[in-house]
Design brief:
single chain, about 350 residues, Aminopeptidase, 8-stranded mixed β-sheet, 7-stranded mixed β-sheet, about 30% strand, binds coenzyme A
């Protein structure tokens, strides 16, 4: 992944120097920084469902090397941070967790931190790069470093100060010809303007239809497993995220039957989210009939045996409050319209 303005990592060991913000030290985080990072997130987000209020979550990522954090020190402790996470299951890298204390904002700090994250991790040419954001400022800052194409949202399950809000997903164009990418071959996809013009074209992806793997539900959430479904349930916000299917049903309709039974037993959640491969139209149709809506088109999301395949994000919401869009109102409306068009073609 090539950033627009590459930085070196020379600043990473400099200690904090008083005075101009340009002199302040940016350095990689260590496990000792976990309490300071939790304090930073608590101060920024208050009562939130953000995973970074959990010391153990941050520590695990630093210790196993999957999360590379950079922090900015101030005399009072960590004043800002950003992270690059590597997700082995789908060979992706995610720029995430950019936070700057209010008194340090508008000084270019998150931009510098994000640049360090992007530049200081060895690249894997087969990787897909992406990030999720709650605010247009984060998209603006990232676009200064690397091209980023919005591809959808999460339906807004998470909370900041007790209020639900959307997170958008943006994907970075892959380096030319770096990975094999397969387009779902159905007409509904090949003739969908949004996919061609708003996703593939700006990402530089060609339309190359081909067969998809049999896998249907894809993901990595597997804290619990019942009745053939692996999932994570976040009781604080009533959010169930499906991470995979281990049941015996061989076909999409069989899986849909199992999913209907599973949701009848376990689906009291306010929010259910699933990522399914974009060629699985029978299953998509059945899920739309169960009350799901498409909220994102995730190009090249799934990696399997040397090739990348697209996925759809489907979400079922049962909560009454409307999530805040924080300035993304127009983008969400436009994308929801495009996803509704696709849904109408599929049913
Ligand atoms: C979003 C956040 C990380 C930005 O950090 P920052 O260090 O102030 O950002 P930068 O100074 O690097 O600014 C990046 C760009 O955004 C612009 N910007 C920053 N804050 C802005 C604001 N409130 N409104 C409009 N533009 C803003 C800057 O002008 C700059 O663009 P420019 O170089 O073209 O002028 C910070 O506001 C924050 O921590 N917010 C709360 C947590 C959060 O929402 N994090 C993002 C999670 S996705």
């Amino acid at each position: 992944m090539h950033t627009k303005h590459s930085a070196t990592c020379h600043e990473t060991t400099a200690p904090f120097l008083s005075g101009n913000i340009e002199d302040r030290a940016i350095r990689p985080a260590t496990p000792d920084d976990c309490p300071g990072l939790v304090r930073l997130f608590r101060r920024t987000y208050g009562d939130t469902s953000h995973p970074c209020l959990d010391d153990g979550f941050i520590r695990a990522g630093i210790e196993d090397g999957s999360h590379r954090w950079f922090v900015l020190d101030t005399p009072e402790g960590i004043g800002a941070c950003a992270c690059l996470a590597r997700h082995a299951w789908n060979r992706s890298r995610e720029a995430c967790f950019g936070v700057v204390l209010p008194e340090l904002r508008h000084l270019g700090i998150v931009t510098r931190l994000a640049r360090h994250c992007l530049d200081c991790m060895p690249q894997d040419p087969a990787e897909l790069g992406y990030f999720s954001m709650r605010h247009p400022v984060a998209l603006h800052a990232m676009r200064k470093l690397i091209d980023s194409v919005l591809v959808g949202h999460d339906g807004g399950p998470n909370t900041v100060d007790g209020v639900r809000e959307y997170h958008m997903t943006a994907v970075h164009p892959p380096a030319a010809g770096r990975f094999i990418h397969v387009t779902p071959a159905q007409r509904a996809m090949l003739h969908w303007d949004f996919l061609r013009d708003a996703v593939y074209a700006p990402l530089g992806l060609a339309i190359r239809p081909g067969p998809y793997p049999e896998d249907c539900l894809v993901g990595t959430e597997h804290e619990q497993e019942t009745d053939g479904f692996r999932y994570t349930f976040d009781a604080r916000i009533g959010a169930l995220t499906l991470g995979g299917y281990t049941g015996a049903a061989p076909k999409e309709n069989g899986l849909a039957d199992d999913l209907e039974r599973f949701l009848a037993t376990h689906g009291k959640a306010d929010y259910v989210c699933a990522r399914i491969l974009a060629d699985k139209h029978q299953l998509t149709r059945r899920m739309l009939a169960m009350g799901f809506a498409i909220t994102a088109y995730l190009p090249a999301w799934y990696w399997r045996e040397g090739a990348r395949f697209d996925a759809l994000m489907l979400v079922r919401r049962r909560f009454d409050d409307s999530p805040q869009a924080n300035g993304f109102e127009e983008e969400i409306a436009t994308m929801d319209q495009a996803f509704a068009q696709l849904a109408a073609r599929l049913v």
